[in-house]
């Protein structure tokens, strides 16, 4: 049984982000407190009797097989596995991936019984963890395409806490020690780099799981990409990325019964002269080892961009975190700078 301090910590973490909507079944889980939450884990989720629940986190998740469907999940870390408790709506969101989820309980759809899917990634199957820029997200990679999940925490604190807990749990695993490294001479150490590009910073845990962090070159690549989108109007050396944050763009739904709004995931990048919104692929890059071909889309796709000098005012909401910001730009005639050239302006 976990200590009182751990139970209290897990209870405090068991809160759904206020801006995201979840199904009734996950709302039930979020309502559990203290020992009831631990008992729920052991009686409904845990696969073996002696595993301990160590950490709980609510996060949006993406799967490698369904890269366009972001779904809310309750992420539970135990001493044996990582469990992703998902909305049942996710199973029906992408009909093409029905083989990914075994839909055996379809007869429960019309009953009062609320179903949740639980995706399990055993710690023994874990191979690497890629941490995104500025700790806004992380990708967990197993041994196949079915075992790649990205957690979009949009919060460096949550990412950091999960990494600490995961490393602590991995330290308990009894794995065979890796063979002693062969001493390399100077020429083999520095002469075998055919790419000419610095590798990302890697930390190999004692459990042989790789923790891969972005290096400074990723920011440089991103700055170069942003400069390209600006059509060369700014010289690259003076271009500094001041802010990179995973956010949502709010689209108000017209004609709905209630004043509802849909949230579109975007990557917001602020430079000294422009504000950009990108559609970013958080799951496909860097390419997993088994990938036979590159992903169908680029890592960054420009969705919108405006010059800071055209910014008229910024409206701030009064609610608590997450804060809503409205950027109001002047209606400038010359906006060819920001238009997506692939967009057909004369179509429907």
Order of neighbouring strands in the sheet with most strands: 4-3-2-1-7-6-5-9-8
Shape: globular
What is the C-alpha radius of gyration, as a whole number of Å? 23 Å
Number of distinct helices: 7
The second-level CATH architecture of the largest domain is Roll
Give an overview in words:
By secondary structure, the chain is an alpha+beta fold. The protein is 20% helix and 31% strand. It has 7 helices and 15 strands. A 9-stranded mixed β-sheet has the order 4-3-2-1-7-6-5-9-8. A hairpin with a 2-residue loop joins strand 11 (261-271) and strand 12 (274-280). The chain is globular.
Brief characterization of the structure:
This protein is α+β, with helices and mostly antiparallel strands. 20% of the residues lie in helices and 31% in strands. The protein has two domains: 170 residues, PH-domain like (Roll), CATH 2.30.29; 114 residues, PH-domain like.
List keywords for this structure.
single chain; 348 residues; alpha+beta; PH-domain like; nine-stranded mixed sheet; four-stranded antiparallel sheet; 7 helices; kinesin binding; PH_domain-containing_M2; NISCH protein
């Amino acid at each position: 049984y976990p200590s009182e301090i751990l139970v209290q910590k897990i209870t405090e973490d068991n809160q759904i982000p206020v801006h995201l909507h979840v199904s009734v079944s996950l709302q039930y889980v979020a309502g559990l407190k203290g020992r009831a939450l631990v008992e729920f884990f052991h009686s409904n989720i845990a696969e073996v009797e002696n595993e301990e629940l160590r950490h709980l986190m609510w996060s949006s998740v993406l799967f490698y097989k369904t890269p366009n469907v972001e779904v809310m999940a309750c992420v539970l870390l135990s001493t044996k596995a990582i469990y992703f408790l998902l909305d049942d709506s996710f199973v029906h969101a992408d009909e093409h991936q029905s083989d990914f989820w075994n839909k055996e309980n379809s007869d429960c759809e019309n009953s009062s019984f609320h179903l949740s899917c639980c995706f399990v990634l055993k710690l023994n199957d874990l191979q690497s963890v890629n941490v995104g820029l500025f700790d806004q997200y992380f990708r967990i990679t197993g041994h196949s395409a079915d075992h790649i999940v990205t957690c979009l925490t949009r919060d460096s604190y949550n990412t950091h806490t999960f990494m600490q807990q995961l490393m602590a749990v991995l330290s308990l695993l009894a794995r065979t020690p890796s063979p002693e490294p062969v001493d390399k001479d100077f020429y083999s150490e520095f002469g075998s780099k055919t790419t000419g590009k610095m590798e990302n910073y890697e930390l190999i845990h004692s459990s042989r799981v790789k923790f891969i962090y972005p290096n400074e070159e990723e920011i440089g690549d991103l700055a170069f990409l942003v400069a390209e989108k600006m059509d060369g109007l700014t010289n690259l050396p003076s271009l500094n990325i001041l802010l990179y944050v995973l956010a949502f763009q709010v689209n108000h739904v017209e004609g709905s019964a209630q004043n509802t709004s849909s949230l579109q995931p975007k990557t917001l990048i602020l430079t000294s002269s422009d504000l950009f919104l990108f559609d970013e692929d958080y799951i496909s890059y860097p390419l997993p080892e088994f990938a036979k071909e590159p992903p169908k889309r680029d890592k960054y796709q420009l969705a919108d961009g405006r010059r800071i000098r055209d910014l008229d005012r910024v409206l701030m909401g009064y609610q608590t975190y997450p804060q809503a910001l409205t950027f109001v730009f002047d209606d400038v005639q010359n906006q060819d700078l920001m238009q997506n050239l692939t967009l057909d302006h004369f179509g429907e």
